[in-house]
Amino acid sequence: MRDTTTPYDNRGAPWLFLAPLALFAIVFLLLPLGFSIYLSFTRWNPLGTPSWVGLRQYEFLLTRDANFLRSLANTFVFALGFVAIGVPLALGLAFVFYRSRGKAVWRSIYFLPQLTNIVAVAYLWQFVLDDRYGVINRALAAISVRGPDWLSDPLMAMVSIILVMVWYDIGRNMLIFSAALEAVDQEIYDAASLDGAGAWRTLRSITLPIIRPAFTFVTITSFITGMGSFALIMAMTAGGPRGATDVTALYAYRMAFEDLRMGRASAAAVMLAVLIGILALIQFRALRVRMSRRKI
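Now predict its structure.
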């Protein structure tokens, strides 16, 4: 007997499953982004109505607002320090645990900070690094050594928040590098060993080129994370001391919710987003060119 049942047409199923994510992206990403771009061309106090001012907010930020320019410089310092310390350290830990016993346990331990709320992490380290009553300085005082002013000295405050951010994020980057190392075929190492290649030669000519995609991904995402960091710095130093850790994201927050200058805050946020995109693209191309010159 011939089956006359109409076959189920599932061509619309992918769109059905994508609909909730698309709706979320439209409501919570695209619409706020578009509204922020619009506000950056206006002068708006939430108690009134926006008034169009064109590029005046951008002109003011770039030419007359020393605090904004200082926040940009602090953002660069924080992001570069975070990448320069965090990426090599995560790669080094991945190599250490690559063939060690109990590597799953060690990886889990280093990943634990990622499961903790970053504000709670900030308050924990604020207690540890307190100049007078912090755990570190009290331990140093016990052996008659005066500890540094971790959070009240401008230079040490920036170093402190960079190191805390590295501690918080290192587990995620280490897992990415570990996955890349696990994917390298052991036969390549065996062949290199038979050809007389040493450990440094193997690392430089085989391992690093093979894990290039992971290295590029970790470097760029770490840089973006550093450029957009806000919660940790807000909770630990609130931009102090004397503006030494006042980054652009914190500047935009303060301008919006303390000074109620939504237009200027939106302009600062838009400029930061554009800058992150441009620098990430430059970084991606530079890393790709540099790594492609290495021969396996």
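The first strand starts at residue 42 and ends at 43.
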